[in-house]
Specification:
Distance between the termini: 33 Å
Largest sheet: 6 strands, antiparallel
Radius of gyration: 41 Å
Shape: flat
Number of helices: 1
Number of strands: 42
Strand content: over 45%
Helix content: under 10%
Length: 615
């Protein structure tokens, strides 16, 4: 909507003169004055504009330097020096640059700002022009995103640095930034004001989840809290690949690599046997008959184990693998070595006129082993024996467990297996300490996997280190209680119970909260609600799991004496106002407020006046 308001600025000049007899008449002197201030018609906030000023000499020519000043709303913002004076009846042009804030402003130009030129009229050196600057809406743009590689693994923790820039009016309200990647999403609240042209950087930590090609998105103002002039620059995207260890095709095969394709048709790939085995760090004989192609779904599940494929140009060290591909396909190429047992050739020729291009080829990987028991971070009593269990996704040759106590090697055992998939063995701990169990699993080709877990043997000592309470407690109002729990050893997913008990004389109320402690320190916030007014005792008790005998029960209990108050109760008893009020006269209103509570409080009384229109 175009603005039609007109404004007038009046300048009053008080002239005090002393007449002197001069040798020259007034017409013999220069007379410089601003005659025009030129700016564009539509000025918007934040835009750097040219302010063009024309200074004319209506008197005699002169060659002396002088200065021209630019003032915006009475503030001097620039001063330009004019060299060589101005000839008679000639104008000099001066260009200033300025960035306006929104609203009404007046531009004031003063020629001969320092009174360097003796003029016949010293009172025509100023000119003023009013301008209106349009306020623009905020415009949040994503300027830069850093910290995201092209390849990530499921479970990776990344720190993403995001830089925003406000290209519009100052942002003076809260808004959110969202980071989305695969199945993971994080959001951050931005509470700081961001001025026009200002950049703001924040970091978001994200645990990566998913598989396959995914778009990572950074979304500014993800909840649409800000009315923006341009929402098209609120999203930043990048495609990356998330890798996850997928289900194993067959326990008789030991190695594989992932290939992705773009189109439907005949996919072709040259295999270099030595290069594949070198990346696995094994010295063995490649079994060309062991090659298999297995299709996986976008979700990472096995989709087709009977993909048609055949081999071309087979040599001792390489061959061409050709298979029937689907659009945007995910394929695992399995292979093995003769040392792990010979395989049968199952290649099958097929007819396909179209060709499919390879999108990406990933490094080879071998089978994996998993420790099923014990869990990492387990706690056992002294003189305890148990059977450990490890399983592999492929048939392997051996598993050896090295045992360390407090960092010192003490023993090793070899696990037994009847199927070369599941391995078991007995472990005994006769002394207290922190134990490290290193499982070394190997196949017949010498490919080795290492799994490490840590367990504690002995009695655990859980204790309440500290509790933090509020300064005051009120009846029927929930109060937060921070409880710091410490364990003498790091634990993982240890189930504990915390009881909160309030005792009022002979009456008590209690509740037990089931919580989980990770590592050696945990801080838990629990709310409790007092039911009576007066003095009370707050008891906090810590309970370990039933199967654990705590070393020292005396530090599992903390007690505090507290006082519980009634909530304050303010009421407006009466309001006294005059029957009639004269316009423009002071209004005095008397308000009677009563506090029926037990304590002194500070309160704010607000008076609201509304206009009633009578029809």
């Amino acid at each position: 909507m175009k603005r039609c308001t007109q404004s007038v600025v009046f300048i009053l000049v008080l002239v005090m003169s002393t007449f002197q007899t001069l040798g020259l008449s007034a017409s013999d002197y220069p007379d410089i004055q601003p005659v025009e201030i030129s700016v564009k018609d539509d000025i918007v906030e934040g835009e750097e504009i040219n302010i063009t000023v024309y200074i004319k000499n209506t008197g005699e020519s002169f060659s002396q330097d002088f200065h021209v000043a630019l003032l915006i709303d009475d503030d001097v913002v620039a001063i330009e020096k004019i060299h060589g004076g101005v000839r008679k009846s000639i104008s000099r042009k001066v260009i200033f640059k300025y960035v306006f804030t929104p609203g009404r402003h007046y531009i004031r130009v003063i020629s001969d700002y320092y009174d360097e030129v003796y003029e016949k009229d010293e009172y025509n050196n100023e000119m003023i022009k009013l301008v209106y600057v349009e306020e623009i809406k905020p415009d949040i743009a994503i300027e830069r995103v850093e910290g995201i590689p092209d390849f990530l693994k499921d479970g990776d923790r990344v720190r993403v640095n995001i830089t925003l820039q406000n290209l519009g009016h100052e942002i003076d309200r809260d808004f959110y930034i969202a980071l989305k990647l695969g199945e993971a999403e994080e959001e951050r609240l931005i509470s700081e004001n961001i001025s026009l042209g200002e950049s703001y950087t924040l970091s978001i930590n994200l645990t990566v989840r998913g598989f396959g090609y995914e778009k990572i998105q950074v979304i500014a103002d993800s909840r649409d809290n800000i009315d923006e002039s341009n929402g098209s620059n609120n999203v930043w995207e990048k495609e990356i690949f998330i890798y996850r260890f997928l289900p194993w095709y067959n326990e008789s095969f030991h190695y594989r690599f992932l290939v992705t394709t773009k189109e439907t048709g005949k996919a072709r790939l040259r295999l270099n046997f030595s290069e594949l085995l070198d990346k696995l760090d094994i010295s063995a004989t490649f079994d060309v008959n062991s090659i298999r192609v297995v299709e996986y779904s976008k979700a990472g599940e096995i989709k087709n184990t009977s993909v048609n494929f055949y081999l071309e140009n087979v040599t001792n060290d390489s061959c061409n693998l050709v298979w029937q591909s689907k659009e945007n396909g995910y394929y695992m190429v399995y292979f093995d070595v003769l040392e792990n047992g010979e395989k049968s050739n199952i290649t099958l020729a097929f007819n396909e006129s179209k060709n499919a291009s390879i999108r990406d080829i990933f490094d080879p990987e071998g089978w994996r082993a998993h420790i099923n028991y014990p869990e990492n971070g387990s706690i056992f009593p002294e003189n305890y024996s148990f059977a450990t269990h490890l399983s592999s996704c492929a048939k392997i040759d051996s598993v050896v467990v090295d045992v360390f106590r407090d960092g010192i090697y003490i023993d090793n055992i070899t696990l037994d297996s009847t199927d070369l998939i599941n391995f078991t063995g007995n472990l005994s701990f006769d002394k207290e300490g922190n134990y490290t169990l290193r499982f070394l699993s190997s196949d017949k080709a010498g490919y080795t996997r290492e799994n490490i877990i840590r367990v504690y043997v002995g009695r655990i000592d859980l204790r309440i280190d500290n509790i933090v309470l509020e300064d005051k407690f009120y009846k029927d109002v929930a109060s937060p209680l921070d409880i710091k729990v410490i364990s003498n050893i790091p634990v993982k997913n240890l189930s504990i119970g915390i009881e909160i008990e309030l005792v009022y004389g002979n009456i008590s109320f209690s509740n037990v909260y089931n919580l989980t402690l990770n590592d050696s320190i945990g801080i838990f916030t629990i709310s409790f609600t007092p039911r009576f007014v007066g003095d009370a005792t707050l008891n906090v008790r810590l309970y370990p799991p039933s199967e654990i005998d705590d070393r020292n029960w005396s530090n599992n209990f903390v007690s505090r004496n507290i006082t519980i108050f009634e909530l304050p109760d303010l009421s407006i008893m009466d309001v006294f106002i005059p029957r009639s009020i004269d316009e423009g006269s002071p209004l005095v209103v008397h308000i009677l407020v009563e506090n029926s509570g037990d304590e002194d409080i500070k309160a704010k009384v607000s008076l609201y006046i509304s206009k009633i229109t009578l029809s």
